[in-house]
Amino acid sequence: MALLDRDGINIYYEVHGAADNPTILLSHGYSATSAMWRAQVAALKDQYQVVVWDMRGHGASDSPEDGALYSEALTVEDMAALLDVAGAQQAIIGGLSLGGYMTLAFHATYPQRCLALMLFDTGPGYKSDKGRAAWNQTAQLRARAFETEGLAALGESEEVRIAQHRSAAGLALAARGMLAQVNDRVIQSLPTIQVKTLVLVGDQDEPFIVPTDYMSGKIPNAAKVVIEQAGHASNIDQPAAFNQAVLEFLSA
What we know:
By secondary structure, this protein is of the alpha/beta class. The chain has one domain (about 1-250): 3-Layer(aba) Sandwich (Rossmann fold), CATH 3.40.50. About 40% of the residues lie in helices and about 20% in strands. The chain has an eight-stranded mixed β-sheet, with helices on both faces. Helix 2 crosses helix 3 (about 100-110) and helix 4 (about 130-150) runs antiparallel to helix 6 (about 170-180).
């Protein structure tokens, strides 16, 4: 069990594969954990150094009580620190759902550290204040559910069903500080992305079909892939097809 000390907050991470291979950093979705990437680690670790981790408030990472310690900016800095620990000045950055959004946020902050991007079942945020407010209302509802129901509020979706968390309070704070969005910085950054980008979605992940089309149209070097018979956790629903799409993208 490896822990990264970030100013007294322990971040759980795993590194698989040889350090002299290209590095891939994979970030999970909200209320999931690094466990969701098991099939991808197995498929990638012989050719790449694969780093997976648990975000603040999730899994085996710490859940500080101060809500100010959960934010998009701090998540991006956690990602940069993980690359430093792995000895990777540059890496292929990828993530699903919230992890995909944080992948875009990382690129907006550290474009020079990105060799390529992989965006799975995710969206780039909102240009309009109205759209962002509606999303943030949903994030607040998620937070209140964890505060009142505890970990029973996780639900039964595939990526969270296999997750093990230490703190429902941490998940509530993560919803308010990391799932909620404060501006349109990420969506406005899409045309500036110059690295090759895989934009992938499950064909049954209806809320993210339109965002996938939008991102693939706005990012100059984007390749779009739709995984058949897959929902929001496309990497778990159809791991073979998902891994094939990722390996084909990386080999190109």
